[in-house]
Design a protein that fits this description.
The N and C termini lie far apart (123 Å). This protein is of the alpha+beta class. The protein contains 5 helices and 26 strands. The protein is 15% helix and 52% strand. The chain has 3 domains: 101 residues, RNA Polymerase Alpha Subunit, Chain A, domain 2, CATH 2.170.120; 88 residues, RNA Polymerase Alpha Subunit, Chain A, domain 2; 87 residues, RNA Polymerase Alpha Subunit, Chain A, domain 2 (Beta Complex).
Amino acid sequence: MFSIFFLCSFLAWFISNLSEPYESTVAFDINYTRVPDSLSVSKGSRMKLDAKVKANGFAFLYYNFYPKKIELDLAQAKALTGRFYYPNTALVKTIEKQLSSSTKLVAVFQDTLFLNVFQVTSKKVEIKPNITLSLEQNYLMDGPLMIDPQSITLKGPEAEIASVQEIITESTELVNITSDFDIEVKLALPDHLENTTISSNMVRLSGKVVRFSEKVFEVEIQVLNSPEGLGVKTFPNSVSVLCKAPIEALKTIKSENFEVVANYQDRVDDKLFLNIRARPQKAYDVRILENQVNFILEKQ
């Protein structure tokens, strides 16, 4: 019972004291408004303003948990040799208009509030992914790595963004991948972009992953630039071609989808060198198992 009465007495005393008026210093957060699109307020500008106010204890308690934000209209600032500033009288009038009727402004400690304002320029730069991608055995990427967005827009002072040619993503590692992936990664912004804003600080990286297999095809050799009046006969007349492709695509591929050629003008002694001139679009990797053949000339 004693504890309960003591607690009640303490609460009554605490509430009574909070009801009394006090004078104290409050730090107001500053929000600059009506800033033209061609200008921006530097992050080095003052973002807090100390002032002495008179209010009851409840108001000060509220300010401790929820700092008051004061809006300063850039259109009301004065300009001097390329700089903007608010004199003390302007600060007082602005703050007084934004305080509640129960709070009275006593003094603003800042005699003059100067702003660092700079001209804004914009620039579009490409995104470069910094990703290590390790696929499980017998899996491959079906198409390129997709980046969304592929570029972002930087807005800030010319001195900061002039040297930026690309923005790299944070390092990302994907291992033992066996299926399609779609992830979001942050951009690793250069440290010197202090006053620059970006259109997006995240990008999406995605890719399609398929299982592949391999198959050997026997492809007939075609000879190019044969001598006039003579035919070129190769030994053998066909060659084995190893093709790696997605399993579903491999089922549709035929020997006729490949062209293996030998250029007679590039012969060395009695040998012709083989090259692949045509291959299926869906093939991942195509290799000739023997890259040269013997030949003889025949009369037509």
